[in-house]
Amino acid sequence: MIETLRRIVQEVNTADNLEITLDIIVRRVQQAMNTEVCSVYLRDYPSGSLVFSATAGLNTEQVGVVSLDEGRGLVGLVASREETINLESAQSHPSFQLVPGIGEEPFNAFLGAPIMHQRKILGVLVVQQSAARRFDESEEAFLITLSAQLAGAIAHAQVSRAVERQAGSVAESFTKVNGIVGAPGIAIGTAVVVSHAADISLVASKTTSNRRAELRNFRDALSKVRIDIEEVSRSLSSELSAEDHALFDVYLGILDDSSLGGEVARLIKSGQWAQGALSQVMMRHIKHFERMEHSYLRERAVDVRDLGSRVLAYLQEEDQEERIFPEKAILVSEELTASMLGEIPRENLVGLVSVRGSGNSHVAILARAMGIPTVMGVVDLPLSSLEGWSLIVDGYNGVIYPNADKDTCSRFQALADRDLAVTKELEPLKTETCKTRDDHRLTLWVNTGLMSDIDYSIDLGADGVGLYRTEIPFLLRESFPSEEEQRRIYRSQLEAFAPRPVTMRTLDIGGDKSLSYFPIEEDNPFLGWRGIRVTLDHPEIFIGQLRAMLKANEGLGNLRIMLPMITTVTELNDALELISRSHKEIRLEGWESNLPPIGVMIEVPAAVYQARALARRVDFLSVGSNDLTQYLLAVDRNNPRVSQLYDHFNPAVLQALVSVAAAAREEYKPVSICGELAGNPQASAILMAMGYDILSMSANSILPVKKTIRSLTLKDSVNLLDEVLQLDDSIKISSRLNQVLFENGLEGFIHR
Predict the structure, then answer these.
(1) Per the residue annotation, which of 285, 362, 583, 648 is the catalytic one?
(2) Are residues 389 and 342 in contact, defined by beta-carbon separation less than 8 angstroms?
(3) How confident is the model at residue 79 (pLDDT cuts 50, 70, 90)?
(4) What's the confidence (pLDDT) of residue 165?
(5) 3-class secondary structure for 14-30?
């Protein structure tokens, strides 16, 4: 059964659309289980009814015509209970209702399994037989397993069909695609699809006005690939048998005009650009090979993909025309990277959408710093179809609206206008002190990493830098920056903010931050080699960075050094020893730079329980709320499947924050918090009450947080914290904090 399951899932995953997907399911399940009937009913969300969507064995003319009201019949019972129902005689069950026209009268045995995706019922998968019998345990297990494995493919196909039907015009009943909040805000603009170099599966479909040039580029690329293959063939001629050597002739034959090359050329002549035509043809044949049962033939999909990628790489070399971006561009990609953000002029970029990743991936953090509304983890998005489409990005709720209707566009434009009005209303606060109504002062710092952050952050009134991400210069290069390069970069940051303090986190790679020239490949990267673990294992990298920081601080004295991912006192002691050694070295070399304050990031549970011991050895503590939440809740923050569990207001997270603040006070050390929670107006009151001296956040959060703090009193915040800590549910906690915002006239921040 396992092999049968694998083949069905593989075939479904290569299907081109929903109709083909459902047809494969009913035919293959009917064959595999040797039943007379297999049918799929899909839920229609506006009405709640279950639509007869595909069948093998019943009346196909009723597909898409017949539907069952919510809760009606055995199929409705499976959906409402969200559990499998196995009956020997369906017609004797009290919930049985005969559906006229579909031809199920002769059938007695009934087995129905719910199709569930992200806690929602997508539909019901049913098998039936005329003989009155109960399906055995292995058959039931097979259907349950298959429905669970196919749910994602069905959900993706449903969204793709709904979205693509809107391609020609604005639909009356619009489709929305759910993702994960990446960066708050509303963006309305035009989709610009970008892909990683030579990825044949991620090329956007678009037309060309110069078919002749596109055809010429394609044929030039084919010629270059032929030359490459012929050269490889010649170089291996003495090492391969004649039979093996003939494979290269097969490769070359695929590119001929009589084969795939001809199909691509015909698409180009019909008006498709060369890269899109190549992708369409190659992906169609790749899927064809992947569906084949014989393992040898399935492996040929790899060969076709390789050929396509080779041709695409040359096409991308030829396509050196400067891309013209729409006035309001929304960058869309399978997986956004920091370098992609630099491909489009900042004045044109209004939104970001990524199929992979989550709200706390590195690009999402950059997006928040840049103030760009972003939705991540939109796994059901039909990427290749979106080029040039109108898109709405709801960064508050993590939803995308492709080609939305007029009313939806008007509604979101009103929200965007309201955001703009709130932002303008906050501008006078730039020069005001962040203090409560009863004169308790709270310091607001900014998280930075890009040079473009500097002037903007200072203009918004940032009191300093609570987190300078030193890995960003590493990420934007093709090799490790030299010590002198780093010194210049760090000096620019320190000078720009002087005399305000600048907290520089030492290199924090690993997890979701990988250097192309220093790859870290692990099964579980967030529990692997990252942060201080990497730099202690590579002291040559760590010492070079420390020396650069200390040199950059000469004559300024506003540097603070922060160590990430500390889990043991031993790690801290080893790092402190290297900092001391680096300081002595540069002093001997003639640099006049004092040893700066050193701090530890509290971002793993082990550090929470050792916070006081760590605080004794350093000058300050800083909580990294994003990672701490991830590790406390055992939630991979880049995994869309569990994103709903990633919750800063989980009582366990709040208790940990209280514990760290108390440990710092006991050792008379200042404590700050950085990350998404620090910039959340909802959280600012209770963080202040916990005893956090400094909140460090994205620049765009400074004024909303300042406005919130200035609207409250410390006494009321302490009472609020006591109340919140008695609550055992994050939804109740969030609702209570929202209520406080509303009561203080801050309802404009509730969706932030």
Answers:
(1) 362
(2) no
(3) very high
(4) 60
(5) CCCCHHHHHHHHHHHHH
Catalytic, 156? Answer: no
What is the structure's pLDDT at 576? 98
**What are the start-end ranges of the E strands in 616-669?**
620-624
**Which of 278, 276, 280 shows the shortest CA–CA distance to 206?**
276
Cα dihedral sign for 499, 503, 507, 510? negative
Place of tokens 């031809």: 103
Q: How confident is the model at residue 145 (pLDDT cuts 50, 70, 90)?
A: confident
Yes or no: say if 32 and 4 are a contact pair by the CB < 8 Å rule.
yes
Average pLDDT value for the chain: 86
Q: What are phi and psi of 594, to 5 degrees?
A: -75, 155
Is 38 one of the catalytic residues? no
3-state secondary structure 98-124: CCCCCCCCCCCEEEEEEEEECCEEEEE
Q: Which domains are assigned to the chain? A: 2-164 (3.30.450.40), 177-195+334-422 (3.50.30.10), 201-318 (1.10.274.10), 435-599+672-749 (3.20.20.60)
**Please, what's the largest Cα pairwise distance for the chain?**
95
Catalytic residue, chosen from 38, 117, 434, 674, is: 674
Q: Where are the beta strands (DSSP E) in 465-513?
A: 465-469, 502-505
Half-sphere exposure in the Cβ direction for 17 (13 Å, CA)? 7
> Which residues are registered as beta bridge partners of 121?
116
Reading across the β-sheet that carries 50-56, which strands appear in turn?
Answer: 67-68, 50-56, 37-43, 120-129, 109-117, 85-87
- From residue 22, give the alpha-carbon distance in Å to each of 25, 120, 357: 5, 18, 28
CA distance 679 to 433: 17
Distance CA 458, CA 431 (A): 10
> Are 487 and 593 in contact, with CB atoms under 8 Å apart?
no
Can you give the pTM of this predicted structure? 0.73
